[in-house]
Design goal:
The chain is an alpha/beta fold. Helix 3 packs across helix 5. It contains 6 helices and 11 strands. The strands form 3 sheets. A 7-stranded mixed sheet has the order 2-1-3-4-11-10-9, with helices on both faces. Strands 5-8 form a two-stranded antiparallel ribbon. The protein has a two-stranded antiparallel sheet with strand order 6-7. The protein is globular and about 40 Å long.
C-alpha cells in the first residue's frame, strides 16, 4: 500500500487529507495518509509528499527548527513524488530550490484578490481552481518544466520531473482529477 506524507506544520493540511480520503473512496484507490510533524515522521519511508498551502515563510522556518528541511529536500532531489499547492509551490521554488521556476507571491493581491476559475489543466480539460492569495509562476527556468495550466494568462501549474506544483487549492473543490493526475506519478 502506498504511503503519502502530508506536511502538517501549518496551513490547510487537514483539507488535503480530507480531499485525499474522498478521492480514495471515489476512485477506489487504496493508500495510507500520515502527517509529517516531527523529524521522526520525515525519516519514515513513504511514497509521496503533499506540501499544502499556508504561509511559506512560516513553514520553512518550522521545517528548519524541527530539522525536517534537509531530510525532505534530499528525498525530493532523489525523486520522491511531490504535490505542492500555493505556499507549497513557493517552498519548492524558493526554499527547497528543487523546482526551477521563478515565483511571485500574492500575485493576484491579498485576500480580497481571491477568485475562482475553471481552466484547462493539461489533458484534463476544465478543472475548478480556487485561488487564495495565490502565487504565479513568472518564468520557467528549465526546458524540462512542463506548463500544465494558466489562469488570467499566468502560469499556475507546472510539472517538473517528480514535482507537481500549482497556485490554486484543489482540496477546496469536489473535483479530484488533479489528485488523480498526481497519482499517475506515484504509480
Amino acid at each position: 500500500m502506498k504511503k503519502i506524507g502530508v506536511l502538517a506544520l501549518q496551513g490547510d493540511f487537514l483539507e488535503h487529507e480530507s480531499a485525499l480520503k474522498k478521492f480514495s473512496l471515489q476512485k477506489k484507490v487504496d493508500f495510507e495518509i500520515f502527517e509529517i510533524r516531527q523529524k521522526k515522521d520525515a525519516l519514515k519511508d513513504f511514497d509521496a509528499l503533499v506540501l499544502p498551502g499556508g504561509e511559506s515563510t512560516v513553514q520553512s522556518k518550522l521545517l528548519h527548527e524541527l530539522e525536517i528541511f534537509d531530510i525532505l529536500k534530499e528525498k525530493i532531489e532523489k525523486g520522491l513524488p511531490v504535490f505542492a499547492t500555493c505556499a507549497g509551490l513557493i517552498l519548492l521554488a524558493s526554499h527547497f530550490q528543487t523546482l526551477p521556476v521563478t515565483v511571485k507571491r500574492n500575485a493576484f493581491g491579498r485576500q480580497l484578490g481571491s477568485f475562482y476559475a475553471e481552466e484547462d489543466f493539461d489533458a484534463l480539460q476544465k478543472v475548478p481552481m480556487t485561488f487564495i492569495r495565490a502565487p504565479i509562476i513568472e518564468t520557467t527556468n528549465s526546458n524540462e518544466v512542463k506548463v500544465l495550466a494558466k489562469a488570467k494568462n499566468f502560469i499556475v501549474a507546472v510539472k517538473y520531473k517528480n514535482q507537481i506544483a500549482i497556485s490554486f487549492h484543489p482540496e477546496l473543490n469536489n473535483d479530484f482529477r488533479v489528485y488523480e493526475y498526481f497519482f499517475e506519478i506515484i504509480e
